[in-house]
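Protocol step 4 of 5: obtain the predicted structure for the target chain.
Materials: sequence only (see below). No template structures provided, no constraints applied. The aim of this step is simply to have a reference model before the mutagenesis design in step 5. Sequence pasted as it appears in the construct record:
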Amino acid sequence: MKKGMTCLAIALVGLTMIGTAQARDTQHLLPVEEAMNTSDARAKLDPNIRFFFADTPHPRVVRDHGNFVTNKKTNAFGKSDEEACKWVMLSALISLQDRVKTEGGNAVINIESYYKSNPMVSRTEYECQAGAIMAGVALRGDVVTLAE
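Step 4 output (structure tokens):
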């Protein structure tokens, strides 16, 4: 019986090592503009809702509706990292857009990447983490109503 348990323990350790060796979590910093200008993004993002990354200048804030975080994942299997990242970025932007509509605002300002609660602030890039089977984007921003 001891021999069987020893073999099982060795097998489990071996499987754990294989899984760890195959795990991947690659950080990508990708252009916001490219993600927002795909045909899918143009079709799904409401042109009446505006997105301002980092400290990009914007019209005067009339009402602040709060700070919100979205954390989205997508299946990356069979896709390039960039393709999966663009898709999940769109999902995160749609989530913020839905929050704007729920709160009665018209924009999200001060948007920053917020993967694993670590802020990455940029006017031009967002952070995406891609692995063998999943890709993820987390964003944080202030939902507001801007003056017209």
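Step 4 remarks: The radius of gyration is 20 Å. Confidence is low (pLDDT under 50) at residues 11-22.
Proceed to step 5.
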